[in-house]
Q: What sequence folds into this?
């Protein structure tokens, strides 16, 4: 009777692969827990894509950690190369988990998410809608959030528009990236009667996507785009041929969409575009989500910045009916 040959002993390279796997999988568990704590209630109130991604990475890390715990075994050279490639890819995934942690809505934004006798606020997995309870107008606002920003962060700054009779829709973007929500406006255009005209707008990267929507639906037969609204943003391409009113609201202390960049965008926008600079406002002054990495420092209170941005937006919407 033949006895099986004993397995070859593990080499130092086998042990290195095993310890690297244990380290990366353990780091994965730590990063996922940290990201869940940092994201907080955005995991529930944001688009479900990030929460699902976080869950998958956590389970995969736990599985890899359990599998890597036993004593290292000898492996072929090709298998070890593939393991190193997989570990490098895993580090990239963990970096994505860390980078995609959203900026959470704070303070006034939470208060503005409550319905009252004037505005009905509804929230689904894909969007937030603030609708006038009485006498809704025929002009609505579809507003794309900035990159990685909780959609609720814009509730306080946009609620005055709903109080004035304009239905406001704020999409929840997958992973907080506006380019992953390019079809959101198309899907919402016919869902909110009596709105028959839309102002599309956005903050930062959201404004870039809104400019694309304005170009695509300017001449639509039903629910056309009647105006374009930028918060600390500008288009990525030339939209100067658009035949519609455009408002660009920016901050003098913005460290991301700087005053110089806003000024340089004039040639990309229609000749009649209105430019309103809020003195002392920063990039994060256009929502309620705290300080943003790379931004400047505000020299006016958040309440004042919010009031001035809302007021400029309201004047712009009023001008569409004149």
A:
């Amino acid at each position: 009777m033949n006895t099986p040959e004993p397995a070859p002993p593990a080499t130092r390279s086998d042990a290195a692969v095993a310890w690297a796997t244990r380290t990366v999988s353990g780091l994965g568990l730590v990063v996922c827990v940290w990201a869940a704590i940092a994201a907080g209630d955005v995991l529930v109130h944001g688009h479900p894509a990030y929460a699902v991604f976080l869950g998958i990475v956590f389970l995969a890390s736990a599985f890899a950690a359990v599998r890597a715990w036993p004593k290292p075994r000898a492996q072929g050279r090709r298998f070890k190369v593939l393991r190193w490639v997989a570990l490098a890819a895993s580090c990239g995934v963990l970096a994505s988990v860390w980078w995609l942690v959203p900026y959470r809505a704070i303070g006034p934004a939470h208060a503005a998410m409550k319905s009252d006798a004037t505005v009905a606020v509804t929230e689904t997995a894909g969007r937030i809608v603030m609708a006038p309870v009485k006498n809704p107008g025929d002009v609505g606002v579809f507003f794309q959030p900035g990159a990685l920003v909780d959609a609720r962060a814009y509730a306080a700054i946009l609620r005055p528009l709903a109080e004035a009779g304009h239905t406001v829709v704020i999409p929840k973007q997958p992973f907080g990236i506006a380019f992953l929500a390019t079809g959101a406006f198309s899907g919402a255009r016919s869902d909110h009667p009596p709105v028959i005209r839309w102002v599309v707008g956005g903050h930062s990267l959201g404004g870039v996507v809104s400019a694309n929507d304005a170009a695509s639906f300017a001449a639509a037969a039903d629910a056309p785009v009647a105006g374009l609204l930028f918060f600390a943003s500008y288009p990525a391409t030339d939209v100067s041929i658009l035949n519609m009113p455009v408002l660009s609201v920016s901050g003098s202390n913005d460290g991301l969409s700087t005053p110089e960049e806003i000024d340089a965008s004039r040639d990309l926008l229609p000749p009649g575009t209105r430019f309103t600079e809020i003195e002392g406002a920063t990039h994060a002054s256009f929502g309620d989500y705290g300080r943003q990495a790379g931004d400047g420092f505000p020299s006016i209170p958040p309440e004042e910045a919010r009031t001035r941005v809302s007021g400029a937006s309201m004047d712009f919407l009023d001008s569409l009916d004149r």
About this structure: Strands lie at 119-123, 127-132, 139-144, 168-171, 197-203, 225-231, 246-251, 274-278. The chain has ten helices and eight strands. The two ends are 98 Å apart (CA to CA). The mean pLDDT is 93.
